[in-house]
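Our consortium's second objective concerns turning raw sequence data into structural hypotheses that experimental partners can test. To show how far this objective has progressed, the report includes one record in full. It was chosen at random from the queue rather than selected for favorable results. The single chain below, 350 residues long, was entered without modification.
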Amino acid sequence: MRGQWERLAHVLAKLALALGLVAVPSVHAQSSIDFTLTLEGDASCSSAPALQDAIEARVGGLVFTDDPRAARRIRVQVIEPVPSAPGSAPDSALEWSAVIAMRDARDRVVGERRVSAVGASCAALDEALIVVITTMIGIADPTASVAPPAPLPEPEPKPEGKKPPAPAVPEPEAEPLRSDIHLALVARAELGFLPGLAPGAALAVGFDLGAAVLSIGGSFLPYAQEDLGTGARAHFMSGTGEASLCLEAGHPFGASFDFCAGVEAGVISARTTGLYAGAARVDPVVRANIGARLRAPLSPDLGLLVSLQAAAPLAFPRYFFIEAGGARRYYHAVELGIATQIGIYWIFSS
């Protein structure tokens, strides 16, 4: 049995070399990039801490941390096993496979590999996981000191006679081009375009283009009011859609800091109570926005979003209300407004 495992490890190592993944590196000093490792799978799988210890022993340095803001996050998802091919292994053996995904500080998938192994338990994947994750760490941290690759062991002599078929090891799939999609749901507050501090909510979908994120969404502010005196009030609400482009500016404390610019368009409606005359009306609103936002990851697929933007109106709604005595009261938008948002975002990889 020991010889079978050694041959399987030999096949996996040769496969890694053939794919140009570089031989397993040995890091002499502590890695300059922090990594986290999580594993989701069967109860028979080795734990994430056990894999971390084995990988650090293999590379000869400390590479893992418990800080969720680490520059690289490695996630292993073990797929439900299937029966192995007839004749390739004992009847009790199963074919296990796992997907290894690495994300950067902006929660983008920067590398993905798939490994397989045949065995009675999920622990059969250990050697393949250690080899591939070690290689991915070496590629992600080119500044680390890397020793020359160790020579591969010579294969054991094969016995004469009928040769049993070797376990099937599927080749890793070519990594496709990826585009992360962000869905953000936030609480929003505006100052300047409606009376007072107007609360509301916003929903946006972002498309990660690499160094930039294109965001399309909308916001709704259901209630703001202006006291017109003598018991009269003006009630306002607004709904707008926005398209913006955000450019990456840095990664403070493991978060992503972006500068954004965009255009917003929609309507503002107004109605009055307690006035002699003051019919409800709707006016268009068009604004140019510029601002900044901070995205802090809370998990591989979830994060906190905070933004602040200034907006200059390109259209100026004005509202006139006539009292019984004929005097006019009015409200109009200011020349420059401010909006702030705080909420959460989800990441979907395509």
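The partners drew two points from this record. The chain has a mean pLDDT of 76. The first strand starts at residue 35 and ends at 40. Both points have been shared with the crystallography group to help prioritize constructs.
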